Amino acid sequence: MPDGKTHLRLRKESRPVAWTIIALVEIVLTLYYQKFTYLTILFPLLTVVGYEMGDLLSPDLDQIGVSNSEALMMRRLGPLGALWAGYFMLYAYLIRFIGGHRSFWSHSPFIGTGIRLVYGTWFMWLGLWWYRVIPDPTLYMSMVSIWLGLSLSDGVHWLADIEDTK
Ligand SMILES: [Zn+2]
Question: What angle is formed at CA 96 by the lines to CA 65 and CA 109, rounded to 5 degrees?
Answer without folding.
Answer: 90
